[in-house]
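User: Teach me something about this protein's shape.
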Amino acid sequence: MTQSNKRQQQAKVLRLFRQLHRQTGVLLFVFFAIVSITTILLGWKKNSGGMIQAKSYKGTSTNLRDWLPMDSLHTIACRVLHDSVSKDLSLELDRIDVRHDKGMVKFIFVDDFLGVQLDGATGELLHIEKRWSDLIEKIHDGSILDHYFNTSNDAFKLIYTTIMGVALMIFTVTGFWLWYGPKRMRKQ
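Assistant: First, the predicted structure itself:
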């Protein structure tokens, strides 16, 4: 292959990569904006002064022997949620976050991204929180659609993360070649 043919072939590859880079960017612009904004918010959640993630309050005892049974704490958390927020909310739990080092337990409910922090020893309410960080995380990974459409197999999350992962790989490869290709051609 002659030097001229080799150069033409390299230029053709660069044009193809530039076109792929541009078209992928145009198609996925909104999604990249969402991922970048939610990444920043999630990175700052613990340093947001309670705006994104509420602080974890301290209970009276870190000794688990002093704590009420978990089923009693759960009953208290459900009562607090219904009495303080709304009787119409589902009491379905997303998870229970036990912070024995703080003497506190968080009951995190599926509906409306709400959490109730209780003193593990007394069952006293420490804090009711809107869990913005959980909402932002679900937007970030695409599982917000699974949440609202109540899918059990995370189909939207899998499709979204696959598309975004492949797109990021395409941007990485094409971006590298758009930077390196012209340098390589100039050297030759």
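Now, about its shape. The beta strands are 93-99, 104-109, 114-119, 125-130. The first helix runs from residue 3 to 44. If you'd like, I can walk through any region in more detail.
User: That's plenty for now, thanks!
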